[in-house]
Amino acid sequence: xxxxxxxxxxxxxxxxxxxxxxxxxxxxxxxxxxxxxxxxxxxxxxxxxxxxxxxxxxxxxxxxxxxxxxxxxxxxxxxxxxxxxxxxxxxxxxxxxxxxxxxxxxxxxxxxxxxxxxxxxxxxxxxxxxxxxxxxxxxxxxxxxxxxxxxxxxxxxxxxxxxxxxxxxxxxxxxxxxxxxxxxxxxxxxxxxxxxxxxxxxxxxxxxxxxxxxxxxxxxxxxxxxxxxxxxxxxxxxxxxxxxxxxxxxxxxxxxxxxxxxxxxxxxxxxxxxxxxxxxxxxxxxxxxx
Amino acid sequence: xxxxxxxxxxxxxxxxxxxxxxxxxxxxxxxxxxxxxxxxxxxxxxxxxxxxxxxxxxxxxxxxxxxxxxxxxxxxxxxxxxxxxxxxxxxxxxxxxxxxxxxxxxxxxxxxxxxxxxxxxxxxxxxxxxxxxxxxxxxxxxxxxxxxxxxxxxxxxxxxxxxxxxxxxxxxxxxxxxxxxxxxxxxxxxxxxxxxxxxxxxxxxxxxxxxxxxxxxxxxxxxxxxxxxxxxxxxxxxxxxxxxxxxxxxxxxxxxxxxxxxxxxxxxxxxxxxxxxxxxxxxxxxxxxxxxxxxxxxxxxxxxxxxxxxxxxxxxxxxxxxxxxxxxxxxxxxxxxxxxxxxxxxxxxxxxxxxxxxxxxxxxxxxxxxxxxxxxxxxxxxxxxxxxxxxxxxx
Lengths: 290, 395
Prior knowledge:
Largest interface: A-B, 30 and 25 residues
Shape of chain B: globular
Distance between the termini of chain A: 36 Å
Oligomer: heterodimer
Structural class of chain A: mainly alpha
Helix content of chain B: 40-55%
CATH architecture of chain A: Orthogonal Bundle
């Protein structure tokens, strides 16, 4: 029982990072129909920037993460305005090829600047070690990730439901043409949404340096997982993405713990089943439309 | 008439080729083809090996027996047997190398073995463990590095004799990993210990957390672990420290791959107290090693280190120079192998020699990670002398 609790916390915190890494991808796919395979590359850049600010410039962890997120978001917006928006009307294949190319360039770029090996950040003492709860203990860092993901989920849901901007996003997701006809500034909404998605991805990358390990293969590795989350959760749905990320996180960790011979096969088997039975993902189950 | 001309031409050509062949040896450069990791995740290790080779040539001169030594590097990043095989073919047929060396990954060595056997060129496995059988498959393969069974057996014996009764093993799921696991279990249980669980982690992108958690829940006296080293090793040690296993009194026993000297400082204090077994430590107390380490630091930086990886390259080059000296620069593949396999050298790691399969026989040391002058070292405290590879007998 205690072992299971440990697996649960590990799995949910892993899911929290997956959520951060994939929510931006889900929304851009659902809203703009734009397949952005360079999404995790932006997360990776966020990670590397956090490492540089934390280790080379000597900033404290919190500020290093904040700085990395800000810088990566700016980079993401520049990329979106300068390059990606030219592809919105093009075919899916063209989008895939372009964004994949961007991802490969990013991977080569970080290898050139930082080298291929694992990077490290200095995590503040309050987040290291275990938190004791009697017979069981949990990693403090992982508990922080869990708490953060819940806070962000609530913030995103409130933002989407209660704010004007959220309404504009939902309208754009439902029917782009009508929304534009009603005077919603589609391009600005896209740009802002892309920025938010990139910021969250960069946050995932920066926090993932400690929990997932950051090296030059990060973008490719987590792209597959992010796509898995989006397929499972349904593109464009926040609660869907959250549920899918948590499910996959727990599944992955639980398999490694109880059935290590299976490896990651369980996750991919699940994706296969979902694609065959319900290709739109879990989205249909959630009440929110976005 | 035509037939006779053809015959004469063929004879002339044959003569020319053989004389060219002979001329290719005397006065011609001595070419060594090194197949190693120049890019990819293990590029750091490949770079170490290269620096050691260049240092060797700087110290011993770049000419031996009247022939200028040329090293040709070819990239086989990570486990890429196809690339390694093609590189070997190109090095032998186009560049006409006299030796093939290097190899930081087992599959690469295995892929090249048939190539050198067909071409009758000597091959020296300098860095990777490779599986035990490789030296039995070809008379042209010499191992200068180590094997997993060779360094694991003493560790298991030491553990059983030093109060460790139960062990949980965590190894990576590939050749060297399974070699290590089998040898550890066999030896540990032969000395009265009990292996209460075994698990294998994937070779690519393993998440060590759940595996260590499971091990912790089984409450063994110690965990025996093996993984390819480098970044995986750092992640593993960090995960071990993070999960509070040391606090629970669960020791960590590993082969030297995990506490690789070149990556040790990156692990920080999480690595203190780790017990490992290996054939080389940069803290080894011998005049040859002190000179080796000092020379490396002088050439590449006061904080720079090399590890068992570099020592393999160093000794490999020593062996090549020895062959050239004893044959005055002119040798066939068979002659080179005969000399190589009969060598007895004093390496920076200690004394080394070779068995009937041209496999290395060397000391294996049990070490503990300690801090000296602000840096982490594997300090040797027990020695198993002249250990032959037990892996072949086990099959």
